Amino acid sequence: MVLHRKSKEIGLSPGSLVYLGDKKEKPVQITVINYGVEHYNQETAATVEDCFQYTTADPITWINIVGINDVKVIGRLGGAYKIHPLVLEDIVNTGHRPKVDYYDDYLFIVLKMLYSATSNQAIQHEQISLIVGKRYVISFQEVALDVFEPVRERIKKGRGRIREQGSDYLAYALMDTVVDRYFNVLEGVGETIDALEDAVIHEPAPETLEVIQDLKHEMLFIRKSIWPFREVVSTLIRRESQLISEDVILFLRDVYDHTIHIIDTVETNRDMLAGMLDIYLSSVNNKMNEVMKVLTIIATIFIPLSFVTGIYGMNFEFMPELKWKIAYPLIWLLMLVVFIGMVIFFRRRKWL
Amino acid sequence: MVLHRKSKEIGLSPGSLVYLGDKKEKPVQITVINYGVEHYNQETAATVEDCFQYTTADPITWINIVGINDVKVIGRLGGAYKIHPLVLEDIVNTGHRPKVDYYDDYLFIVLKMLYSATSNQAIQHEQISLIVGKRYVISFQEVALDVFEPVRERIKKGRGRIREQGSDYLAYALMDTVVDRYFNVLEGVGETIDALEDAVIHEPAPETLEVIQDLKHEMLFIRKSIWPFREVVSTLIRRESQLISEDVILFLRDVYDHTIHIIDTVETNRDMLAGMLDIYLSSVNNKMNEVMKVLTIIATIFIPLSFVTGIYGMNFEFMPELKWKIAYPLIWLLMLVVFIGMVIFFRRRKWL
Amino acid sequence: MVLHRKSKEIGLSPGSLVYLGDKKEKPVQITVINYGVEHYNQETAATVEDCFQYTTADPITWINIVGINDVKVIGRLGGAYKIHPLVLEDIVNTGHRPKVDYYDDYLFIVLKMLYSATSNQAIQHEQISLIVGKRYVISFQEVALDVFEPVRERIKKGRGRIREQGSDYLAYALMDTVVDRYFNVLEGVGETIDALEDAVIHEPAPETLEVIQDLKHEMLFIRKSIWPFREVVSTLIRRESQLISEDVILFLRDVYDHTIHIIDTVETNRDMLAGMLDIYLSSVNNKMNEVMKVLTIIATIFIPLSFVTGIYGMNFEFMPELKWKIAYPLIWLLMLVVFIGMVIFFRRRKWL
Amino acid sequence: MVLHRKSKEIGLSPGSLVYLGDKKEKPVQITVINYGVEHYNQETAATVEDCFQYTTADPITWINIVGINDVKVIGRLGGAYKIHPLVLEDIVNTGHRPKVDYYDDYLFIVLKMLYSATSNQAIQHEQISLIVGKRYVISFQEVALDVFEPVRERIKKGRGRIREQGSDYLAYALMDTVVDRYFNVLEGVGETIDALEDAVIHEPAPETLEVIQDLKHEMLFIRKSIWPFREVVSTLIRRESQLISEDVILFLRDVYDHTIHIIDTVETNRDMLAGMLDIYLSSVNNKMNEVMKVLTIIATIFIPLSFVTGIYGMNFEFMPELKWKIAYPLIWLLMLVVFIGMVIFFRRRKWL
Amino acid sequence: MVLHRKSKEIGLSPGSLVYLGDKKEKPVQITVINYGVEHYNQETAATVEDCFQYTTADPITWINIVGINDVKVIGRLGGAYKIHPLVLEDIVNTGHRPKVDYYDDYLFIVLKMLYSATSNQAIQHEQISLIVGKRYVISFQEVALDVFEPVRERIKKGRGRIREQGSDYLAYALMDTVVDRYFNVLEGVGETIDALEDAVIHEPAPETLEVIQDLKHEMLFIRKSIWPFREVVSTLIRRESQLISEDVILFLRDVYDHTIHIIDTVETNRDMLAGMLDIYLSSVNNKMNEVMKVLTIIATIFIPLSFVTGIYGMNFEFMPELKWKIAYPLIWLLMLVVFIGMVIFFRRRKWL
């Protein structure tokens, strides 16, 4: 999962479109939203050709494409919008790290979206690609999750300033939504970690180890997604481009702060998880200590006593004590003294 | 706690004011101090509108607002002082890292204040926001702690140079007070660590582990607050702005030295705490070693002796030794020899 | 293996050609491919002199030399193509890290190729050297592996844009193929690691340790190869040279992304392997805990019971209980009570 | 100790002189040395006013002040030599890291001096402050240690080039002396570490742990002093100032090399100490292993033998073996065989 | 050893020549080689004055001085060749890190030479100082090892280009020889590590720990030598000087590659050694696990069986079973069943 199965294509020439992911959406869903301050129109495109009219269209067009396994669709769209073949290849090749590439007429942004299925804790991810032109944004998703629904709502209802702004603001809004999902996922992880901390001290079990290990993998994965994400935002802020306005840069700075916040949280989690393994080991050793103490106490008390009984179980003919009437009670007394002595010894050592 | 619950607002458009913290102060307390070299006036504003007159007022005005949960108050104040909506959002959004943003007419500074409740050791924190204009400083606190009381006293009594200086010096004084709280908190932590070091070597217990783990979290938290704090001060020193005078930069350098000192202390504490876990593990193993030695000594001495008694406890009819008169004392002698031999063996190995 | 046996040549003057590797190919195989948009010609050169005609030849010539142990061949080729003696020395000296050197008429690129023999997991490597001139590429391999076969196929069949491009594109294609082998090898490693993770928690064995240690070495080795590889690509992208066209730089950027991806994967693997050792230790301790519990339970139950039987095995003449008819059943009852008490005790402690 | 008790002064305005250290010298000792190539005069100043004449005096004046708890003395001296109030505050505030501040007429240098009391190993430190003017150096020490005596001797006897050089050379000589003390202290630490290495492998004891932990703290402390010290020297070398001549920069480079050397040694020591904890743990486990082996060997040999004697200690009426004459010797033979078998088993496992 | 005993000279003024090492060569050996393309002359100088004639001599003169404990010799030579006193001090002060200093007429280079005595593994080192003038190289060694013999041979026999090149090429050749010794030493270390890896998994012993620890120290030491060595070479390559020709820079780049290679190897070794300690710990725990299993199996089988025999060893008058004829065989059967049950139990747990 972590490693993109690049090996399938050894020998392929670059620029050939082959979808390498394992999430097949059939058929590809294309949604087109065309909007301006006073204007809003949303429709589902039956074929990719329906989107071509927007290349020179009204204020802002947002084309959202769900399912990138049908590479022909991507190819034809790329032709209409004059997208570089390497960009199209990157869109369908889901093994990329987040990055931003500058082209003359558009920016190409690759992001990683996180989501956690509700039933268990495994974190899923999909690649989100954005092509940000002067008047349009084309977004590509691997699966049909309604992650962009809030943005669609805001455009539809004209809430906030989104209807008054350009395609760069729309791109910002989409990136902001992606970042919010990271917070969402990390919150769940945080709760799991809190629960683990208790478990690891009081009830260490091999299963706890497995959960810790899984979380460490997930933190590694999020880390690998968010660091280059931060780089993307940082590049967008620093590098001048007529596609990103001064206004939107202020908002991107906010996204940048969020990515730093996420990195902080991930690093903190990693630190905590690393510490937990040590604590787990300490707890296991503590438990073993308890076990050993019980064994030692019992054995140390009863082995000498058994020795005493062994002596008077011997069958020598000439053992004068065996004839004494007082011997049996005396032996009981002796054993009592030994027993009490042992208990005092253990109390002194704080084992009892 | 560590992670700001950003997820509540997925889909919110930026600029909407929603307080995300959990510290509600009712009602909002507004204190206005207006002062100059010869002049001092302090009053409690009943409504936020009472503060609007100071935008163009006498030498220096300090508006301190406690309680940021009433977002309408913040909004109206922001309008009067022409504060950017994103700044207002950052003030009520308490999940921010310390930062400084430069605007044309004012600086916006976010800091984290630490305080430790007296009864237990959990470190609390609140967000302090400062808006530093040419002639005014507006400070925002989440809860009503008298952290700024010493500064208020200095202004009132005209001690030091505070009455002769501008709003930048006031901002410096407030930041210096915040830094002092870090020293205060770290001092308490240092004492706890000193006590822990002894405990971990001589009386390792699972509770010690929990305290170590808690302190590690706190160090992680302070670290996450103080590093960006240092960045804030460093930016104020390096970046030119007509809002910060040359004079005040000298004082800010002092604050910068303090933040480095705090970072040093936090890193030292982290190092010590990390080492403590190893020592804890060693101590637990040492204890187990002690337990095992006791068991081994007792078992190793008495198991062979019991074997001897077992032999002469057998009921064979033809065991000539059983008839000997000398046998019983001889057996005692044999066992004594074995016992002394064992003791010598253990002494040689330094187990006794 | 990891350390190049430089010591054999202490005292040698630089520029003397001595092959230091251990892979002898006899005889050296020389393949020459001469191609243009419309033109394709492949032949096997009998002697190195057959290659000399291509120094001023048609569009693009690719000379592939397998086996660098025959240093005279390298020397004569170097003479014909006016290659610097230090470059020739670097070609036969297989202990080099990946690097790129700029000369007036050509670039000299050293890479490390990875391959894993199918039967076991040991990762092999060989040094690939490329000399990239205006119209020719000379590639040197240590052993006859068909790693460049896909590129040869693409040229032959005229697939992709390779026939239309210059020698720089050919160099890119070869480097891309090398990078692909890294993915290939890492994929195998990834599967091994997944399998190990289970083994380490549920069946820790000394052999597991050895596999982990071997993988750690391999990751260290790949790391040492891929970091300077990345540097090579980065230098090719950044540094201006009339030998690398703008077009090809776009493709090199893709290779650069791949190397970063590989570095990410290697670092993740290293992190996981480091964590596995801790888990291994925890698992071993857990196992020991289990063993100790069984011992403790059995010993703690039966040692006191044996003590009881020992008492009534004593041969004192005056032990009134021995005469009681009820004594024997009573003793059974007592032992049953002790047994049940112990079981309850262990259940409470969750040892049973 | 590590943390400067800054909390005592929360609310103090900057510039107020309060001594925060715990080393009170009464009364303050002031030594004035005035010297040139041909000229040397040393006297002890009764009051601070006696030093004021030297502000415009002959070639070079060195004023050494021991004891900084009398803040009034510092204040008056500062007035005469026109020292900035923040500098005076830094002199008495002993919690500072080493640093250098540039003022128009003088440099202000803060250093940490180390010394180890002879009887035990605790490393002490005091703050050394230097004010380096064109014709004078004022040095401040917390306690009366003769650390600067060698420099005084060199001036007095006119050894080396010190009498021919300016105040910058004097400052260099003082800094060099401070650095030498670090070597002195580290040498002692090195010997302790060598001794510890043996102890930790052959005789691990909880006391060893405490010594290791103490040394780690000391290394942390030295590290915190020497890194900024290096920065100070580096700044003096790089930054142009008419107070430091080209000649003296050559000598400062030597001091710089020394600080790097010290940093190297400290890092090496830290590495060794960190490794020692692991070795300690291994040694403790090794010891436990030895203990367990003894227990296992004894128990494994004698428990089965005791079982055999137990069988023939049973009182069944119909046990035919009990009647056999050969039985008793046979049983001895059997036990001997079992014993020898066990010994062979343990020898094979290399436990004996 | 690691720490240069600087403390002996606290209070010494800089520039005084005192040899601080512990390798005394008596008397100092001075070899002078004067050579050009056609010319070669080697002689042993009886006194240092014999070398003075070469300051303005024929093409290239190489003066090799073995033994630096006779500081007067160094002093006089320094006078004749106009060497700065600080340089002379650095030559006899053997505690220096590798470095290069630029003076007007010469370069001063300090290196660390490694060599391993054949009988055991301790790595020795000596300081090599080079003074590289326009027409001469003066090299200083502490002890008479024939490390420069190969260079001498090459000059004598006129092999390679050494006779045609200047003093800079000679300096390069000497540095290259020093680097080669590092490879030599590391090769030996590599073989030791390979052997250790096996030992640590299969036969962990406290002696293994000591070897690991020794190797870690040696790696730390080599690291401290090679990093600044790399800096030296890097400075020589980057910084312009009329003493180093363009040609020689190409060769120095080769040395630079070698130093990076050595650093890589050292870091890899450090990584492996660090991992080995963990593996050692795991192996020790594994061994203990084996020991515990044997104990547990034996004890768990025989303690219950002994309990059974204990029961029928009791002397109660009314134990009906004792009278039964079938009892004794039955008890054997019971014990057999218990024994087989235990074996099955242990097999299930994979302990047998």
Please provide a written account of the structure.
- The structure is a homopentamer of 352-residue chains.
- Chain A is an alpha+beta fold and 352 residues long.
- Chain A is 52% helix and 15% strand.
- Chain A contains seven helices and seven strands, in the order βββααββββααααα.
- In chain A, strands 2-1-3-7-6-5-4 form a seven-stranded mixed sheet, sandwiched between helices.
- In chain A, strand 5 (106-116) and strand 6 form a beta hairpin.
- At the B-D interface, helix 3, helix 4 and helix 6 of B face helix 5, helix 6 and helix 7 of D.
- Report helical residue fraction of chain A: 40-55%
Uncertain runs of chain A = 1-8
Strand order of the largest sheet of chain A: 2-1-3-7-6-5-4
What's the CATH class label of the largest domain in chain A?
A: Alpha Beta
Biggest interface reads: B-D, 65 and 62 residues
Number of helices in the DSSP assignment of chain A: 7
